[in-house]
Amino acid sequence: MEKEYKISNGNKPVSLLCLVAGVVLFVTALVMDFMGTGNTLRGAFLVLGAVGIFFGLFLLPTEKHHRRIINVIFLFPLLFAFAVTVIIPLVLGIGYSFTDWDGIRMTKIVGFENYAKMFTQPSFIWSILITFLFVVFNMILVNLVAFLLALLCTSKIKGLGFFRAAYFLPNLIGGIVLGYIWQFIFSNVVTKWTAALFNSQYSMLSDTPTAFIAIIIVYVWQYAGYIMLIYITGLNTVPGEVLEAAAIDGATPLQTLFNIKIPMIAPTVTICTFLTLTSAFKMFDVNLSLTNGTGSVADFLGSYLTNGTEMLALNIYSTAVVENKYSFGEAKAVLFFIILAIVSIIQVRITSSKEVEL
Hints:
Shape: flat
Number of strands: 2
CATH topology of the largest domain: MetI-like fold
Number of helices: 14
Structural class: mainly alpha
Distance between the termini: 45 Å
Order of helices and strands: HHHHHHHHHHHHEEHH
Number of domains: 2
Helix content: over 70%
Oligomer: single chain
Strand content: under 5%
Strand order of the largest sheet: 1-2
CATH class of the largest domain: Mainly Alpha
């Protein structure tokens, strides 16, 4: 029988005191951060508040749930890091989006002014459209290329280890470095090829449509190897007995692929499509280093645009950091979060329903 831990009731006042003090200090630190006051104290209050909650839970006198509390305490460092880096910034960002915050101070609450303003910007609407277009192309191309590479790397050819490592290697290169490498290739190597073949130097980065295609090429080249490994794992889970039975029954390789392998790795397809969708939506570093969002669009909603290749994440960065409009950038980021959440939920539900059908 599992041993129950007995905690003295004498610890109850100390436990409650630590909990109350910890919560008060934690909330005070968040309020001070939101109001932009107490710069020298809010960090100390945040840490002391977390420590107070920690010891308050540890000393809480209960026999039945003490083990659960201990488990929570062991998870506390991870939960605390997640709250500080994700949950709290998200909540504060939503709050700042309704103000005139400039990154340092806030003077007034402007309500939905930032949200209304963003839809009057043709450049922002263009970024949304081109981001959706980029996501569609990459979901198809990355998964198609990755699946074909996975089929190759699960075949019986020699040197499978080399091929797997070679295809995965581009994913290990940082997006910023990768963008500058391909910028050199498109601007110096490809131009020499076009000069030799067509007697005219032409860079794909010089025009908006071809620059957009260049971004897709780089992204597929970088990300397909990572998705390939997931498909390889899925294909390796297909029972060999089933494949042998299909071969004995006279099934062709294509029939085996579409009627056995793909239906049996449907959960893997769901995971890969989700990863490619969210990653393509959040694509920032390659966009920044390869084109920096530049590109001309002659007439969009009656305006001449110079951000023809600027994806949504880069547009938010430019608004907040480059233009120093942090509250406006926060409003765009909140809308970005809502769009990504809705699209991801829809995608997972559709692919999950296809799993059942297959």
